[in-house]
Design brief:
Elements lengths: L1 E2 L3 H12 L5 E3 L3 H4 L8 E3 L1 H7 L2 E4 L20 E4 L13 H8 L4 E4 L6 H6 L7 E4 L4 H13 L3 E4 L6 H6 L9 H30 L7 H35 L8 H8 L1 H21 L4 H16 L8 H27 L2 H4 L4 H7 L1
Parallel strand pairs: 1-2, 1-4, 2-3, 4-5, 5-6, 7-8
Helix pairs in contact: 8-9, 9-11, 11-13
Length: about 350
């Protein structure tokens, strides 16, 4: 059974029907909501829906849980699956699932399906996150909900007892928790190198020679900064591994815990490496766009005019030609190798490699 008539309740009903379950939907206005649900789902009043189902998905907001208190007698012995989320992390002292359990002590409450979006339910597990996190104090109830999730095409993950509900409810509200430190690190490095290159390429020529080179800021200065950030970030990927090895050699054991700063550093290596690849890819794109600039075309024309005035047949400098050819070739190879590292960091690719293969590539 499904209690609620919102977007998530409708998507849940659609997925349950497609998975072969008999679905009954409880609504306060069944006649008005009936056309929103699949024809195979029975839409009726909440009391009737509760009587006809043993497992009930509570797809309503926490603030409306109290409206179900009139159904306490018919809910006795039922399995209530709380699918709700909060609007803020740790918004309440107790989780929504624990609050629901306190209102209906005669029921068995299971927390689950809150990390699955309505879109994933409608489109199927192939186009979204396949994991369904489940927790409850009742093992039999967890097993029942896990079996339903499996039939629906999802992968149930047992998160333990009901005390884990707060952690599960916080998961959808987090914004890239593992990326905060690497992003701030990348921004800090970018600002440092950008300031240095700005002084060197724009401010210094203006002070010494009075040349206005502000036009270099959007492309040239940024393009000079990106590779600097990239190779420093890449070095920060492998440096903590060296420090960890030195620490183990110094203490003569691999079982001693690393310092917290080194432990955090090791855990963020993947994100730092991907940001390094991102900066390198941007550098490649910026470099390809250099000849498209109007300033570059003017410089070519000025060089040609100067060559004609000086009556020079060629301005070929062998050393500069070889230097640029090698520079571009090595850069392409480096970007290719960095792309390989980035691809193998994807979970789907990394899981297909054994430890020796992964270590060889890394």
């Amino acid at each position: 059974g499904v209690l609620g008539s919102g977007d998530f309740a409708r998507s849940l009903a659609v997925r349950l029907v497609c998975s072969g379950f008999k679905v009954v939907v409880g609504s306060r206005n069944p006649k008005r909501k009936a056309n929103l649900f699949p024809a195979a789902a029975e839409v009726t009043f909440q009391a009737e829906a509760v009587k006809k189902a043993d497992v009930i998905f509570v797809a309503i907001f926490r603030e409306h849980y109290s409206t179900l208190c009139d159904l306490a007698d018919v809910l006795v012995g039922k399995i209530l699956v709380d699918v709700s989320n909060n609007t803020e992390i740790n918004h309440h002292k107790e989780s929504n699932a624990e609050y629901l359990a306190s209102l209906f002590p005669a029921c068995t409450v299971v927390k689950g399906f809150n990390v699955v979006s309505a879109w994933t339910l409608q489109s199927g597990a192939r186009d979204g996150n396949k994991q369904v996190l489940i927790c409850s104090n009742n093992q039999e109830a967890k097993r029942t909900v896990a079996e339903i999730a499996q039939v629906m095409g999802f992968t149930p993950v047992d998160m333990g007892c009901m005390s884990s509900a707060s952690e599960i409810e916080n998961i959808p509200l987090r914004l890239l928790p593992a990326w905060k430190i690497p992003i701030f690190l990348a921004l800090g490095l970018f600002l440092c190198f950008f300031t240095y290159n700005l002084i060197r390429q724009v401010i210094h020529p203006y002070i010494r020679e009075g040349k206005n080179k502000l036009y270099k800021i959007p492309i040239e200065v940024v393009n000079t900064t990106l590779p600097c950030v990239s190779y420093v970030m890449l070095s920060l990927v492998y440096l903590p591994g060296v420090l960890a090895a030195c620490s183990q050699l110094y203490y003569g054991t691999k079982y001693r815990r690393f310092p917290d700063w080194l432990d955090q550093w090791l855990q963020h290596r993947k994100q730092i490496g991907l940001l390094s690849f991102f900066c390198a890819a941007l550098h490649a794109v910026y470099s390809l766009c250099l000849p498209m600039r109007r300033s570059h075309r003017y410089l070519l024309i000025e060089t040609a005019v100067k060559q004609a005035v000086e009556k020079k047949m060629t301005i070929w400098v062998e050393e500069e030609v070889w230097r640029m050819e090698i520079y571009i070739s090595v850069g392409i190879i480096a970007l290719g190798l960095l792309s390989l590292l980035a691809i193998t960091s994807l979970p789907s690719i990394a899981n297909s490699l054994n430890w020796r293969e992964f270590s060889f590539i890394q």
